[in-house]
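Progress note, sequence design subtask.
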């Protein structure tokens, strides 16, 4: 199922396909960097095409979801496609994830919002960056939706949300986090073992309860693309639909049979998002 509020320019789509299928015109570089996070350093990877003297390129900040890392196949595929299309990107590990500092149990969405803003400040100071976009999966999609609204369209030109996890705020009153961990909502535990070794702290749960996800994200005035699988049992696609309904300049693509991580369809999702960013950032 595909819903659009506007149509894409056919010339831009052709240009995107030509670049991606034939992978021409750009020598590629990868750089590891560190950025100050909430209370320590975040490990990040920059991918960008070859840049000529004084040339500026569009850039996308990529945010992973709950328990994931910057190395998630969905996000790496997006970074690779963007790079091949002449767009730079940075993907990083939030607090307590991947190679970054801290304990997973110290993580909260408000802290991730601070960290995403720190990454934006880092990117905005790079001399070769022109327009900036953001992309996020699951909880990272919530972070992107809120950060882009708080910073505004002048700073974040466009956003792409992969299965944005608006369900998180609804999970707390139900006492059932992400459909895998139960607790007493009136008295949240000091720690909650969600899955495997992922243990969240009480602060994570209490800050989710009143997190103004939609109240904030609906203030974003830039272009937004929502991608969501209709077979997603972690975050039902109706939550992606709500972002589409709430954000003024938004488009949505819904996919029958696709799960929360778009397993087996990562390159396809990267194509859609890259096409979108080519139109909005180039």
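Output:
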């Amino acid at each position: 199922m595909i819903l659009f509020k506007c149509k894409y320019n056919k010339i831009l789509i052709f240009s995107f396909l030509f670049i991606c299928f034939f992978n021409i015109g750009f020598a590629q570089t990868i750089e590891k960097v560190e950025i100050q996070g909430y209370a320590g350093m975040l490990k990040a990877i920059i991918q960008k095409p070859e840049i000529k003297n004084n040339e500026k390129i569009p850039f996308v900040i990529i945010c992973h979801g709950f328990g994931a890392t910057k190395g998630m196949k969905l996000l790496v595929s997006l970074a690779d496609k963007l790079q091949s299309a002449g767009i730079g990107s940075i993907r990083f590990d939030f607090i307590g994830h991947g190679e970054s500092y801290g304990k997973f149990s110290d993580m909260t969405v408000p802290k991730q919002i601070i960290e995403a803003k720190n990454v934006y400040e880092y990117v905005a100071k790079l001399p070769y960056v022109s327009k900036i976009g953001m992309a996020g999966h699951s909880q990272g999609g919530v972070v992107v939706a809120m950060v882009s609204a708080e910073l505004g369209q002048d700073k974040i030109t466009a956003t792409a949300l992969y299965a944005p996890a608006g369900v998180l705020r609804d999970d707390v009153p139900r006492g059932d986090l992400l459909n895998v961990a139960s607790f007493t909502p009136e008295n949240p535990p000091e720690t909650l073992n969600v899955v495997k070794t992922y243990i969240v702290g009480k602060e994570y749960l209490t800050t989710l309860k009143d997190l103004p996800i939609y109240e904030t994200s609906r203030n974003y005035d830039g272009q937004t693309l929502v991608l969501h699988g209709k077979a997603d049992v972690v975050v039902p696609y109706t939550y992606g639909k709500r972002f589409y309904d709430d954000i003024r300049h938004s488009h949505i693509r819904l996919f029958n049979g696709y799960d929360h991580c778009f397993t087996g369809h990562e390159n396809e999702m990267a194509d859609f998002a890259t096409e979108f960013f080519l139109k909005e950032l180039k």
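The radius of gyration is 18 Å. Work on this subtask will continue into the next period as scheduled.
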